[in-house]
Amino acid sequence: MSGAVRLVLLGPPGAGKGTQAVLVAQHRGIPHISTGDILRSAVAAGSELGKKVKSILDSGNLVPDEVVIGLIRERLAKSDCERGFLLDGFPRTVDQAKALTALLKDIGRELSHVLDISVPENVLIDRIRSRGAQGSGRADDTGEVAANRLKVYWEQTAPVTSYYNQIGRVIKIDGLGTIDEVQARIGKALD
Ligand code: AMP
């Protein structure tokens, strides 16, 4: 469908991706697809997948590419994605990004937007710590695990931004300010 928003939201842990993703998806009436949410639900449900990935989530490392690519392939095949979608937390590696490009090409589609929410590193650390301290319900928001998630981001996920810059345009969004301010910047980028 032309005009549909098929969006990838990039940015380090603590950049506010999840919060912004929920609002954008609501506003545009498109599904919010978060691999982190899907994986956490699997862990909570104690499913086979959940048992397989629990210790990985607990460590802040990445679940194998083939696992998350499989989840995304299944999810994007659902009919609600025909009017567009927002991906939050996927792709997290260049191989995942390439798989997504191929997957969309197979169905004659491509992404309409790639947004990268950027926030200075010292702010990220403060935000993740205070989220953990306020009881975000995320075991991976505290201490060493939070630090590892940032390390994993710089090593494995930051290159995804370069990949998208090579094949298209990445719109940088300043992630500092209030939720509403950042939301307004995203809205402008999508219009
Ligand atoms: P998130 O909620 O996006 O921060 O994801 C929480 C955790 O789920 C991550 O720290 C990873 O262990 C795992 N995860 C989520 N998305 C992915 C992905 N695209 N690739 C690999 N692991 C992922």
Helices and strands in order:
Layout lengths: L4 E6 L6 H12 L3 E3 H11 L2 H12 L5 H12 L7 E5 L5 H13 L6 E6 L2 H13 L9 H25 L2 E5 L4 H12 L1
Parallel strand pairs: 1-3, 1-4, 2-3, 4-5
Any overview of this molecule?
This protein has 191 residues and is an alpha/beta fold. The protein has 8 helices and 5 strands, in the order βαβαααβαβααβα. It has a 5-stranded parallel β-sheet, with helices on both faces. The mean pLDDT is 93. The structure holds adenosine monophosphate. The site of adenosine monophosphate (AMP) has 17 residues, from α2 and α3.
* Class derived from helix and strand content: alpha/beta
Q: Which series of helices and strands comes N to C?
A: EHEHHHEHEHHEH
Provide a count of the helices.
Answer: 8
Q: Tell me, what's the shape?
A: globular
User: How do the strands line up in the largest sheet?
Assistant: 2-3-1-4-5
Uncertain runs are: none
Largest beta sheet, briefly? 5 strands, parallel
Q: Overall mean pLDDT score?
A: 93
Number of strands: 5
Distance between the termini: 16 Å
Q: What is bound: which ligands?
A: adenosine monophosphate
Tell me the Rg in angstroms. Answer: 16 Å
Estimate the strand proportion.
Answer: 5-15%
- Helix fraction by DSSP (H/I, runs of at least 4): 55-70%
The protein's oligomeric status is single chain
